[in-house]
Amino acid sequence: MGMTITEKILAKSAKKNFVTPGENVWLDVDVLMTHDVCGPPTIAIWKKEFGEKAKIFDKEKLVIFPDHYIFTQNAHANRNVDILRQFAAEQNLPNYYDVGTERYKGVCHIALAEEGYNVPGTVLFGTDSHTCTSGAFGMFATGVGNTDAAFILGTGKIWEKVPESMKFIFNGVMPSYLTAKDLILQILGDITTDGATYRAMEFDGDAIFSLSMYERMTLTNMAIEAGGMNGIIKVDEITREYLREVGITKFDEFESDADANYQSKYVYNVEEIEPLVAKPHSPDNRDIVRNVAGTKLTKCYIGSCTGGKITDFQFAAQILFGNNVKVPTFVVPASTTVAKQLSEETHKGISLKEIFENSGCIIAESSCAACLGGPSDTIGRSIDGDVVISTTNRNFPGRMGSKASGVYLASPLTVAASAVTGVITDPRDFL
Amino acid sequence: MEKVINGLAYVLGDNIDTDQIIPAEHLVYSTSDPEELKKYGHYALSSVPIEKAGLPNGGIPFIDGDNHSSKFRIIIGGKNFGCGSSREHAPLSLQVAGVKVVVAQSYARIFYRNSVDGGFIIPFESEIQLNNKIKTGDEIEIDLPNNLLINKTSGEKYNLKPLGSVFEIVDAGGLFEFARATKMI
């Protein structure tokens, strides 16, 4: 019997010819990523277990991006970055992206792609559940906790159970009013937040391969919202072109065999999917935008590893161009590269940055910002009974700050349309 | 590992995510400083909506006042316990608050791994839904060798799923203890 793309990559990492779902394997880790929330406790566990003078498994393979709590006065949050800085100096780490320097990048999952750490056929672990984002590059990527990360830091290895795979095939031509966010919300509504627990989610079909790398990352990013261990999309010419631009030319391309075994398969026609939202308080609480249209909002938010990429802002700019926002609207570029692109990319001859400024949006510096609440001085954080529509990936109670607030998740088109009217609005009203 | 664990039950619903277990704004305290560590216990389960805190009636805080530990040592959850973030602070905060065992219908992968590999709590899965049969405040006994939950308040007994292949890691007290015992490191 054949293997899926995920099984092939895990077999390579485990130095085996064949692996089957359910089997426990020891993997050689190609990249370990951590950040300012989980880095300090990971370092503490590693020192406690391997000794103060221990050496990490491979300096080249550890990547650290401070990104979660960056622009805050919170002393404890700032201390976390100090710990990373000290550790990077002590271990002489080449891949530390310090805040306050030219190297600062912003949100780790986007920075991993931009800095060339997403290499097809490899295995990447990170101390963040959205590490699955990197699977858009035909690689295996998943999140772990601090103890597992400390074990990798000392040994370069981790045990994993080989996941079963589920396949999601999207056929058809993407309509102008639809984005990858709508596709993943469609899946979440169908399979719920534990529908893919401990499984690989493989995305396939013509509509998927018509998407840019950034849009593909929106799909794999939210695999974890269905409980998925990893999301994955095989390499095609669009992947290769992105990799060429960041200087990656040598890599292994795997694809699923025709007779590979899947736990389940879902087939969609994108032309039949409508703009969607996830209502409070769960990413699987799906509804079509038209059913909740008119819901009064107090805030709009465009940002995060899911919804703060250049493509997300290109979508939003189409609608915000020439319009004014009616409620406070936050624009948070995921990375410093995206922030730079906002000045360079144009729509109808005007830079995206100017479009957002002219429409009355508040543009923040690159970081995770209010996607996960954060310290009380975090920009865009929800307070009291806020009703927010956001391009982020989670709307659990209290996720963006106040547990009395309610968050709707939606595409950047839907968020932009809603920002202009002040109530939840179908983007087709503007396109 | 203790063979029998006794304690009061604290009952929760489905999809208790890691933001409800320990909200992101509190992830800044040091896990190595014993005084700061207490804050993880103090804020444990602090983002569970109050009407769902301590079922069936709700409205029961997990932590009283300024305490950092709870009188509830056994959590009874529903489906998909621990979904969301990779933060190991989640099972850690439950441990700091004094929780020994979580019994849920199912778990999210990363939370389950973190609970086992960090040796924070024992994550048992129940054979049937229990958060509609057990009430917050019921006296519970977990009989580990027999994978049994006894509700001493109601007299009812329920089977738990054996821990299976992770038993050895749980029994050793975590991944590093297990790795040392088996000469892996």
For the sheet with most strands of chain A, the description reads: 7 strands, mixed
Overall pLDDT confidence of chain B: 97
Unreliable spans of chain B are none
Number of strands of chain A: 19
**Tertiary shape of chain A:** globular
Bin the strand percentage of chain B: 15-25%
Low-confidence runs of at least 5 consecutive residues of chain A: none
Helix proportion of residues of chain A, in percent? 25-40%
- Average residue pLDDT of chain A: 98
Percent of residues in beta strands of chain A: 15-25%
Shape of chain B: globular
End-to-end separation of chain B: 22 Å
Largest protein interface, residues of each chain:
A-B, 50 and 40 residues
Number of helices of chain A: 15
Q: What distance lies between the first and last C-alpha atoms of chain A, to the nearest angstrom? A: 47 Å
Describe the structure.
The complex is a heterodimer of chains A (431) and B (185). By secondary structure, chain A is of the alpha/beta class. Chain A has helices spanning 5-13, 39-50, 75-91, 108-114, 146-155, 180-191, 206-209, 213-221, 237-245, 289-292, 304-307, 310-320, 336-344, 352-359, 412-421; strands at 24-28, 31-35, 62-65, 123-126, 140-143, 157-161, 164-171, 199-204, 230-232, 264-269, 276-278, 286-288, 299-303, 329-332, 346-347, 350-351, 362-363, 387-390, 406-410. In chain A, the strands form 5 sheets. A 7-stranded mixed β-sheet of chain A has the order 12-11-19-18-13-14-17, sandwiched between helices. In chain A, strands 3-2-4-5 form a 4-stranded parallel β-sheet, with helices on both faces. The longest helix of chain A has 17 residues, at 75-91. The N and C termini of chain A lie far apart (47 Å). Chain B is of the alpha/beta class and 185 residues long. Chain B has 6 helices and 7 strands. Chain B has helices spanning 18-21, 34-42, 89-96, 109-117, 167-172, 175-181, and strands spanning 4-11, 72-76, 101-104, 122-126, 139-143, 148-151, 157-161. A 7-stranded mixed β-barrel of chain B has the order 1-2-3-4-7-6-5. Chain B is globular, with a radius of gyration of 16 Å. The relative contact order of chain B is 0.19. Chain A binds chain B through residues 24, 37-38, 40-41, 44, 48-49, 68-69, 74, 76-77, 79-80, 126-129, 131, 143-148, 151, 154-155, 193-194, 197-198, 224, 227, 229, 281-282, 372-376, 394, 396-399, 401, 403, and chain B through 15, 17, 19-20, 23-25, 27-32, 47-49, 79-80, 83-89, 106-110, 113-114, 117-118, 165, 174-176, 179, 185.
